[in-house]
Amino acid sequence: MANLSNVQINSIFEKSKNRDMIDRCIGQHERLRLHVQPALDAREVSPAYRVFLRWLKGYLTNDKYEQVIQLLTFPLPTVDLTESIFNELSRALEGENGYTKFDFTVDNAGEDFNDYIIVKLKEEDFFLREGFETFKVAINNVLVVDLPVTQTGTLPDPYFYFLEPELLYDIDINYKGVIEYIVFNEANNPNIRYVFDDSFYRTYTRKEQTDIFTLQSEVRHSEYTADGERITGLGYCPARMFWDIPQTRPEIMQRKGPLTSKLGKLDKLLFWDVSTEYYESYGTYPIYWEYDNDESCDYEDGAGNHCEGGFIGGMAANGAVLDKRVCPKCARNNYVGPGSVKRIEPPVDNTDADLREPAGIIPVDVPALQNAQERLDARYEKLFISVVGKGGEPKNDQAKNQKQVETSLNSKENVLLTIKGAWERARKWGLDTVARLRYGDAFIGSTLIMGDEFYLVDEADLQEQYLAAKEKGAPAYVLAEMLKNLQQTKYRSNPEQIQRIDILAEVYPYPDHSVEELTLIDAQSPGLINPDLLLLKIGFNMYIRRFETEELDLVRFGIKLDFKNKIDLIKTKLLSYVTTDKTAASSWADSRRAQQIADKPSGPGNGNIGGQPKGNDNPRA
After folding, report:
1. Do 344 and 305 lie in a common domain?
2. Is residue 75 reached through a cis peptide bond, with omega within 30 degrees of 0 on the bond before it?
3. Residue 621 lies in a domain
4. Greatest alpha-carbon span in the chain
5. Who's near 384: CB < 8 A, 6+ residues apart?
6. 233 and 354 part of one domain
7. How far is it, in rounded angstroms, from Cα 136 to Cα 162?
8. Average of pLDDT values for 74-95?
9. How distant is the alpha carbon of residue 461 from its chain centre?
């Protein structure tokens, strides 16, 4: 437990205990941003780009390096790959069957807390949207729950935010991965410094950077006995590492995100991508050759010195003798690459036979070029699968048996469950800390479970599986579950539409049978099919439109009722439409028959054979 004294804080201000660890976290973030954030030019790109260029320059000769970096355009090609990776990993936050519950000893605290975190804190947007950006490029951020210096309402107003390592001055993490204290600066103002530990929120200020920090404000959040037992309050420092999966040991600040162990491969993939593009340019701009005509180079430098045999010497403008240096024009000619010209020695005499044309093209090795592209594609796919798990790779036409499909889905599901678990722990800690600061010991605890039923199969595949199961005669309850999964996948980005689909699924009669199938069943087993439900199924869309015209849309109707009562009311209303239509149809039929009887002649004698009506008097005309 860290309950820092002023002497200890001043000692920390003199020298940060973990500056090197913080700097390594910043460097990790810069490498992540290089491959994740789409920069449009060199001014926007991460500083890690300069490190990559230094590595590239040490790997290639100068002439090749200059040519290759011309093909490094922004956004960098690896950004596309990481975007696809995180699109797949975002499914970890879309799981179904989640559950959240907060328990308090005070009756109205639960309702107040729900309103507070939804309306004021917008916690879902914070953890799912801002948290996902942190997950992508700032995995070492600290999650902090803070308090205003002055309380304005009847209850404290705690709030949370992510703290970047760039603002950290010092941090101490114990062997369990729990933060003992953090010291950090105000953004854009190094003269304001905050110290949070197990007991206090403290703010220090100074006028100039050469001045000593002095205590400006102090807010106690926890009290302890002399033995360190909590009396009231949090009982811990209101900060934790957002991501609790360590890269090495728990006390080391650097966290292990999905791309942490892949950063070296991403650097090399970027190199191979631009190298393959450079190789492909040979096809567009091939290498030409021609006989050397033995003409001297015409290069002349600013002092009037000429090229002699590929080198320049002579005198400088001030009369000093210059050392020989390589002629830049000849150096360019010596470089062999796309579009360059290679000069070769012509035959010396007629005994040195060379029957070639005086000039020509060195053709590109097409199979080697195709192989290079295939190897690059394989590298991309291998890295993609190594992060998201099997089952997340781009679709291909290769058939897979059921066992292969299940194995792939299990692999990817394990990845998503790991991410979901870390997210759950961070979110629960943040909300529990807010609740403890706002309600004190009136807060008992919480249960927070993010769903673990993920959308791992797309809509088209689910539709195919459903139809195949139906054709094979799968049980109705299996078909119902498959249909629900299909609908939730189709409308997963529209929660209100999912609610509507759930209601429609409850009131739609005989969902696993067509009208034709039901008619056949009724003919073979009279009385087995409810005729009113069959009529409701036939005119279902019409009756739903009528309901929403006369009442409300399905989602808003009975919004304060429990789901079962709401469904019962909707069903009753829909069946009342069927009854009304049946009554109207029966009355119309009776009226029609009566009219036909009244119009029918009593017998022959009206000039028509057999007493049949003539012309338009035919009731079926």
Report:
1. yes
2. yes
3. no
4. 141
5. 81, 84, 85, 392, 393, 394
6. no
7. 13
8. 94
9. 22
Residues 144, 53, single domain; the answer is yes
Q: Which of residues 449, 470, 502 is at a domain's end?
A: 449
Calpha distance 483→95 (Å, rounded): 17
Looking up tokens 């950006």 gives 133
Of the candidates 132, 92, 139, 133, the one whose C-alpha atom is nearest the C-alpha of residue 417 is 92
> What's 455's DSSP letter?
-
Per-residue DSSP letter, 311: E
Q: pLDDT for 575-593, tens place per residue? A: 999 999 988 888 887 777 7
Name the residue range of residue 548's domain.
491-599
**Alpha-carbon span 18 to 252, nearest angstrom:** 10
Q: Are residues 319 and 255 in the same domain?
A: no
Percent of the chain with pLDDT over 90: 54
Structure tokens given for 591: 């009226």
Q: Stretch 335-360: mean pLDDT, rounded?
A: 55
Whether 406 maps to a domain, the answer reads no
User: Domain check: are 430 and 345 in the same one?
Assistant: no
- 4 DSSP 8-state letter: -
Q: How many domains does the chain have?
A: 3
Asked whether residue 21 is assigned to any structural domain, the reply reads yes
Residue with tokens 């309950």: 3
- Residues 492-541 pLDDT 10s: 767 788 888 889 989 999 988 889 999 999 899 998 999 999 999 999 99
| Helix H or strand E segment including 163 | strand 159-163
- Kindly state whether residues 430 and 499 are assigned to the same domain: no
**Is residue 78 included in any domain, yes or no?**
yes
Tell me, yes or no, whether 171 and 205 share the same domain. yes
List the one residue out of 306, 286, 287 whose CA is nearest residue 297: 306
**Judgement on whether residues 244 and 312 belong to the same structural domain of the protein:** no
User: Does the pLDDT value for residue 340 go beyond 60?
Assistant: no
Q: Which of 362, 387, 403 is the last residue of a domain?
A: 362
Reported pTM: 0.69
- Closest by CA to 238, choosing from 156, 181, 177, is 181
* Cβ neighbour number for residue 586 with a 10 Å cutoff: 10
Residue 339 above 50 pLDDT? no
